[in-house]
Amino acid sequence: MPAGRLAFLRPFLFVLLMALLVPVMVRGINNLSDARYCAGMGADSLTFRLDPAFADYLTPEAMQELSGWVAGVQLIGEFDTLPVAEINALVQQCGLQAVLLHRRRPADELAQLTVPALKLTSWIPDMMPEDVDLRFREQAPHYQGFVLATPPFPLPNAAAMLRLTEQARTYTIWLGAGFAPDTLRTLADTVRPAGIVLQGGDEIKPGLRDFDEMEAVFEQLETE
Q: Helix/strand/coil (H, E, C) string of 26-64?
């Protein structure tokens, strides 16, 4: 396997390099190096921040330019406050297969979406387990799954992880790699989330990107 930081130099050799234990979602793709590298390493989906409410949002034209270089991955748009009608227009324009919503929306708005929606969800350390269950149970009919991308600090204790494991058996829950930075294989085997979420990064300069950290995550999830 090529060194991570050199992988983007081989644009015509991006076949599926790895079989992974669980699907991988890479959020916030904003450059061609990330798009091609993650697709080539076997990522299941890439997200693009398309809502002007985000300071680092991409224009539809920029997103289309990036996605035109990759194949075999699900394209997901991230949205915060943009109205549903405008989200649907971007879904069609950019060829999105799903959306990742940052804010909870009424059921009637969600019903108007033309593609499935995932919900970005925060870990609330002091929230009672029954309240967490209620939150998932109320929202589950309207979302394809929940994305807990950012782990709390400190990390959840053993009891909290056991509860999360039980919830992952009932609901479709994606977890950020930071929930188990050094033991992702164990997390994948025990909690069995729907997938692992990584965060894309910025290029050092156009065409130059250090993939060492991301490569280490993909290696942990590679099937043996």
A: EECCCCHHHHHHHHHCCCCEEEEECCCCCCCCCCHHHHH
| Phi–psi pair at 90, nearest 5 degrees | -70, -35
Angle formed at CA 22 by CA 157 and CA 114, multiple of 5 degrees: 105
CATH code (residue 50): 3.20.20.70
Residue 54 lies in a domain: yes
Specify the 3-state DSSP secondary structure of 98: strand
Question: Using omega within 30 degrees of 0 as the cis cutoff, is the peptide bond preceding 154 cis?
Answer: yes
Highest mean pLDDT among 122-126, 130-134, 159-163, 191-195 belongs to: 191-195
| Tens of pLDDT, residues 151-206 | 988 899 999 999 999 999 999 999 999 999 889 999 999 999 999 999 988 766 66
- Break the chain down into helix, strand, coil percent, rounded to 5: 40, 20, 45
What is the per-residue pLDDT for 5?
41
Judge whether residue 3 has pLDDT over 50. no
The verdict on residue 17 lying in a domain is: no
pTM of the model: 0.89
In a domain, 13, yes or no: no
What is the domain extent for residue 39?
24-221
Q: Is residue 148 part of a domain?
A: yes
d(CA 29, CA 27): 6
Number of domains observed in the structure of the chain: 1
